[in-house]
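Chain X:
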Amino acid sequence: MHEWAKPGVRESEVCAKVNEYLYRSGFDFVYDIIVASGGNTSPYRRWHTDKIIRQGDLVIVDINAIGPGGYFIDFVRCWKVAAKPTPKEKDLYKRCYDSLYAGIEALRPGATTADVAARFPEYDDDKYGSVSLQQFAHSIGLSLYEGMWISRAYSFKHPAEIKQNMYFAIETFSGFPGLEQTVRLEENVCVTDQGPVRFTLCEHPDYWFSEP
């Protein structure tokens, strides 16, 4: 996908490319594709526009689709366009990545949704009891949202047990008011007796983790 997000290309064109790729790959139905670049990542806009992608933009792509066999995928990746990420952008990515994988590590049989929510960073949901969909997880399978939600807004007061073979989409966000760009990531994970197993095949770009 990062190959399609180039300077001069519109968000809508990237969205079209992702749709074409998924259908050519045998997916049954593309539910939703979010492409947000540059200023459209802050605040994070949950759709695509005709905005032209520029050099230096961060591009967030969120894919929800029904794959072969009727099972959903739901994952997010973030790329830097035609430039090296700045130290501040790397820090944002690391915050997002670390909180994501801290939550994943807690997805184990016998744990509770409160254990997972405790790994997410504090956010306005803590203060207002809202569900902003910034730091959360949800069960996924034959439908996009299968009934179990994990959020700091209510999982502490209403914990539910995590059981073997449960399958989750878990996603986190890193950004602050006033920033021009932000980062969002998401993985699909199966709970096993050997620990959480990531099913998302799209890797994270090495440049986010390389030394300056």
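Chain Y:
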Amino acid sequence: MPRPMPLHAPLLAAVTVFAALTACGGGSAAQGADARVQQAADNAVRSGLAGVVLGHLGASERLLSAAGVRQVGLPDAVKASDAFMIGSTTKAMTAALAGRLVERGAIAWSTTLAEALPDLAAGMRADYRRITLEQLLAHRGGLLAFNTDADFIRFQAYLQTARAPLPTTLAQRQRFFAAWLLAQEPPPNVTPGETFAYSNAGYALAALMLESRTGRPYAALMQQELTLPLGLSVTWTAADQRVSNGPVGHAGAQARLSAVPPEDADSAAWLEVLRPAGDGTTVSPDSYARWVRWHLRALRGEATPLASSYLQRLQALKAGDYALGWVAGEIDGRPVLFHDGENRGFSTLLVIDRQGRSASFGFTNTAADDGSWVIGLLNQALLTLQRAQPLAS
């Protein structure tokens, strides 16, 4: 049966962390910049991360540095070419996919759950029927979060008492889960369509809307509309498996990390439903840097495969707001976009200058029970990179 999945809300407090970054004057030689990225990675490992890859992109440069080990207690070193699970930073990819399909006319940002999923409309709570694709991607659908024990236990209890045979395919599980979810009351003090309430389940429903309108599964849509046009390599690691020939996820307190064991096969099958929210998404730093580079180009006004309506919504965000898999923040008054992610002992953090001048990201095969100290170390590493390599004017 499903167990709680470590996909969590982005740390909104990071807005203040990034706001504290200070732009310094002057430039750096490429060799010095590369050394600083490596030093930041080394420092993060000395502070407790099992392994890490840091990336920094400027107008033309792309720097990647690795430190630490693939698994605590074993000698294999993390490589800058290793693939990592990226958790909730997948949400921006799902939103970018939606933007591509909106531009193709397959769906609209204003398409509602009842319109996209008419076969489920009769069983939906009335306050969910008018929720739009855009509201789901902004976490304003009012749905259960599915990043806490309580939501998983609630769903598990339902599975144990279900009278009809349980679904056996991913497509069947998606609709089974959606039908159950849309019949549940919103969380306390949450008004669907109005209140911001972070929800992994909301992104699963958004992807189901895309599937319903196109007749194609999420993975195929991702390949057709995102990974091929952008030249990315994105795979999914099942929850009962580990990343092939790569780092192992770890969790725990600093200096007391242990490898995260795979889930059982039944849990893994249900967790596939939440892949659009970030479960199991596996990407190399090189491929992720390419994803980030497309955003830098688009934010500078260059033509890219990213949908214009997707970019327009990101550019319109105010500090502290959330939309389409991104949180808006500021660095000394300069607008940035950022998000973090955590999944099965892996954590990710990304920050992009909204004028398209620079970006930094960190991958680690380390997670904390509450995410705090791990994301804090990634915050510090990216802060160091931004201070040492100031944004070009």
